[in-house]
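Much of what follows relies on a compact textual record of a protein's fold. The record below shows the convention in full:
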Amino acid sequence: HYFIQSNLSAMTDEGIRSTNNDAAHCKRWCVERGYYSDPFIKHFVPHTSSKSPEISRGYYLRTQSVWQGVRNFVRSHGRKCQIINVGAGSDTLFWNISAEGLQPVRFVELDFVQIVMKKIRTITRKEELFSVLKHEDSDLTREEDQSRDVAEQPSRDTSSPCHMTKTAISSPHYHLLSVDLRAESSLSDLLTTCSLDPALPTLVLAECVLCYMPPQASQTLISWTSSTFPHSTFLNYEPCNMGDRFGSIMVENMRSRDCELPGILACPTLDDQKARFISAGFARATALDMNEVMRLLPVEGVARMSRLEFFDEVEILTQLLEHYCLAWGVQGECGEVVFSE
């Protein structure tokens, strides 16, 4: 029975990891089609194939709402804050906000070891990525404990403050670590390993992550955030409203690719999304489906998105956006997530 269970778990984990490739390729196509600018995605996805207009619009809305929410969080705290991107995959957010002068005190990325190792290989081979770690914003450098739980070795540039192993990168403001978020013990070491400051405003970002975790594990992660960082925001993007026929088809499609969604049942509605943040200790919570989020984004950008490709299946897009949401919990000095420029 253990052998069978272990094989099933491995198959499911491989299915989860494959969603990172899917998302990265969809984002690359969005950039190629001109939906938004991301000069760094090409390093992680050199080539891709075409995607349907509704998929491109969905990824545009996802990326722009998350990025704008993070930008405004960093601005509101004068960059004296921390970002923890769980299940970061091939995400390029750190490089994009750094290029915009919005590098926070600490930016931490966490994912499966296989994904982290691949990302490290890409970072070290691409000077445009690696140079950001070698020349991080000196204005943000603070005196800090230099001890690390991760065994470090000098990077290819021994004068650089960036150190790495095959499974971790550690620099003054950026950390990339392999962590299985389903293991509660993984969270307790993050404060020292990444030199996180519990007193700083902290945003934890989870894009299509909690839905792949058992409900107890995701609740532990959310509760750890609220109890560890008194001034914090937890921003979550994932499927929602999955109780109808459209939702059932989405779930079956994922299962056909050996990818289970154990977290879906934990929050079937937007009210459930809000309730889990409150029960985890956050003072306030909000949950919006992506149709509602779209109405909060800058009008010019949404209008330009609509003109890029011919698309007359508006009902399909509306239905798709009804089944994804952004939900967040906030507490302390952290205000509401804002999507306007």
In short: Strands lie at 82-86, 106-111, 163-165, 168-170, 174-178, 202-207, 232-239, 284-289, 324-331. The chain has 14 helices and nine strands. Confidence is low (pLDDT under 50) at residues 1-8, 142-159.
